[in-house]
Specification:
The protein is α/β, with parallel strands linked by helices. The chain contains 13 helices and 26 strands. A hairpin with a 2-residue loop joins β9 and β10.
Amino acid sequence: MIQIQQLKLPITHTKEELEEKILKTLKIKKEQMLSFRIARQSIDARKKQDIHYVYTIEADTGMDEKIAGRLRQDKIRCLKRTEYQFPSSGQKKMERRPLIVGSGPAGLFCAYMLAKAGYAPAVLERGKTTEERKKDVERFFRDGTLAPSSNVQFGEGGAGAFSDGKLNTLVKDPVGRGRKALEIFAAHGAPKEICYEAKPHIGTDVLAKVIPSIRQKITDMGGTFFFESCMTDLSIKDGAAVAVEINREEWIDVQALVLAIGHSARDTFEMLLSHGIPMGAKPFAVGLRVEHPQEMVSRAQYKDAWLSLPPASYKLTANAGGRGVYSFCMCPGGYVVNASSEQGRLAVNGMSFHKRDGNNANSAIIVSVTEQDFGGSGPLSGVAFQRALEERAYALGGGAIPQQLYGDFKRKRKSASFGAFCSATCGQAQFGSLHELFEPSIYESFLFGMERFAGSIPGFNREDAILSGIESRTSSPVKIYREENFQSGIRGLYPCGEGAGYAGGILSAAMDGMKVAEAIAMEYAPNDF
């Protein structure tokens, strides 16, 4: 096939105009092109007076080398596309089916690949199915009744199920795991556009249908799911994981145990540490959700073209005297969500539906923190740091999401009312003194970022921008160490995904789940379970 890079078209172009541009670029007639596909689509808004779509196209003509050789252009080349290949099976006998703890993207995609290869994995999930979990989350948003094992953090689909469903990643992907994961999402109900958009997203509403479809496919291929089943203990013998306890009631033997536990499984971190599982504290970031009118953001990014384009996003970074300050999990047309998972502690996140048609844009503006900030030592010092901040946030809002206008945050005074726009939240909220949350260095770094970002998006530091806190679950505060074979220092134990410190989002977690599935397959031969 022929790959065409940097194919530019106006933002109002049609599919027919795209095809015409391809034919003109290749200098061929319509009947000479057998097929084409969009490999990548992005919006170039660097010049506000000339905003356009940019495509990478893969076309099949049947005479690709001849055409590419005739054109001799750097942006046109013959391409042999490499498809993702799951490895051949190893020789070691698998006595027991692989056991995967957690059904977030890492656990789901690990299970999917193993089930497809004939390993009949079993998946333990402390929370409920997507359908039942959704009911618990909606009740929590409505009246504040928290189900500790079925909430925005825990349950089928993981924490990403109640977010924007963003699928972009910076992880290098020479073997095509990311593309394969996107194709699996699309095959189970996600929009096909995710396979080529530069910033793909699914949306919480669509994810709620996609995840059960993936689960059903895994079941059809021989996998088994056990919901409301929490791994509460672990048995290690002669340096190998041999059994796990479920719900403090029963033990089951294991041979290959995948820990796809997510970044909020604090009780599991504690249990693993008690057994000497090698782990350490890792840096992460904390901050506040910031809301602006979506129209303001779209106008700033796209100027007069904003009505012809999808709601705009942004990515902002700054350095505040050695501390990184940056936007995280930006949700166009989204909502601020109460993402708590422990009684007496409060955390927030952002969420968008597929259409991203809410009135407000929000993102976390977060400040990097390290072990020097944690004020303690040991692998779980970051967890303790998170918990302390979440307890303060809970107290500031009386259990509701504490909010404050940016102008009042700067002046360290409690807000009394919203300004020109109101907050869009899922969960109860009330005004609170968010400036009391952070120690001075983090507080000043946050202010520095807000003021600096106004240089990129005018009005970012507007007095009535709405702050909500606290954003503390940006990534895992723990890294569970693993070796080149993807196993912990304990044989048969496979730390996996974001909770173990090897991913940072839905797609990278799915890719890490695939890596672990490959590692298991390369060692073991499937059995008839």
